[in-house]
């Protein structure tokens, strides 16, 4: 393979890893209100081993999720970047790791045994920052449908999404129509 092709494959893999982490971030933010079992199940869906996730670690993960939810609710790209920079300033320099049989990947938390809250905040902030630098828009949004506060990844190049799903979009349109009628 040529050097250019190798770089393209590496960048695509890097973006795919960031996209996966952004989806995981949104899913965990949505699972936090469901308690420890919902958080464990969500992390497991994204390939994380949660057997050792204690109640204290769930609490730390929930605190990290609160910081990230505030970023999701922010519509100003400048304020999103400021908030991400605040988090990234507390992280460690990037390092490569291949723990627990995973392929080599970047971490910016203290070590492979870092607290779950630190790991989630650092890995999510890094993925969100990669997404911002690629798309030049806030990476997460909060559903605007009445009665829904789900967080979703914003990955559309066109008009910004306002709803977490087609169900919420339809519900909001029906609600708006009934309000006008």
TrEMBL record:
This is CGNR zinc finger domain-containing protein. Residues 140-180 form the Zinc finger CGNR domain. It comes from Microbacterium bovistercoris. Transmembrane segments: none annotated. InterPro entries: ABATE, ABATE_dom_sf, Znf_CGNR. It holds the Pfam family zf-CGNR. It comes from the Bacteria.
